[in-house]
Design a protein that fits this description.
Length: 247
């Protein structure tokens, strides 16, 4: 029997009602409770009653109809659980960059807004780091996009190896990355920015056995919670360009 077979469910319900000898109110309540039990994942095996109906009042046909109905409700619950799982997986895919294991820009900005809101309500400082690779375009032009993709994955893993569990890392576009640091002031964010730049310098990308130093510039700002997310990113971006211009 198909899960969506409304005629079969109707027949099962009618059979259950007849088992009460016309006490339709009691039969409806019993069926509703049984459906709730099945929906909750509980398979009724009580030999004294089924869906609240005394077994002595059940004919074999009614018993079979009720058990079929209970099975259909349980199957519907399993299908619903499967849909919920697929929705969670879709949400995760929508939040992550397709190339590297980081948040995409949309998700990063959303999380930044949450951190700013939390900081404003609770007086918690936060830091924002903005990283830009110095020679990524040259690598892409000389070695191709596949090499560029490999370089971005290498940089993403380097950044992840240097952050705390509570930090949020995202790819903001092209060769630009961001880090949101909760419970961190501007000094801590600047220290983290410098630390990551040093790691990128010490760990060049290797392509066909050849080490290629991409280099990076990173700026950092402190956040109080009063900033707009895009404005905060702009401030961190400007701080990064000041570092890049200074050499």
């Amino acid at each position: 029997m198909k899960v969506g077979d409304s005629k079969s469910r109707s027949a099962a319900g009618s059979a259950a009602s007849r088992a009460y000898g016309g006490t339709a109110k009691t039969g409806t309540a019993g069926a509703a409770q049984g459906a709730a039990d099945a929906a909750g994942g509980r398979v009724v095996t009580d030999t004294a009653s089924i869906m609240g109906v005394p077994e002595t009042e059940l004919t074999p046909a009614v018993r079979s109809a009720l058990m079929t109905l209970m099975g259909e409700v349980a199957e519907l619950r399993r299908e619903l659980d499967g849909v919920k799982t697929r929705l969670r997986e879709a949400e995760q895919l929508a939040d992550h960059d397709p190339l590297v294991p980081l948040l995409n820009r949309r998700a990063f900005v959303r999380e930044l807004a949450r951190v700013l809101s939390y900081g404003q309500r609770h007086g918690e400082p936060a830091g924002l780091v903005y990283i830009d690779l110095d020679r990524f375009k040259s690598l892409n032009d000389a070695h191709g996009h596949a090499a560029g993709d490999e370089a971005l994955r290498h940089i993403a893993h380097l950044i992840l190896s240097q952050v705390r569990e509570s930090d949020l890392v995202g790819r903001l576009g092209g060769d630009e990355f961001g880090i949101i640091m909760m419970r961190a002031d501007e000094a801590a964010a600047r220290h983290k920015a410098q630390q990551i730049v040093e790691q990128i310098t010490r760990n060049p990308v290797k392509l066909n056995g050849v080490a290629i130093d991409l280099g990076a510039s990173a700026g950092a700002v402190g956040l109080t919670g009063s900033e707009d997310p895009e404005e905060a990113l702009k401030q961190a971006d400007l701080a990064m360009y000041e570092i890049k211009k200074s050499g």
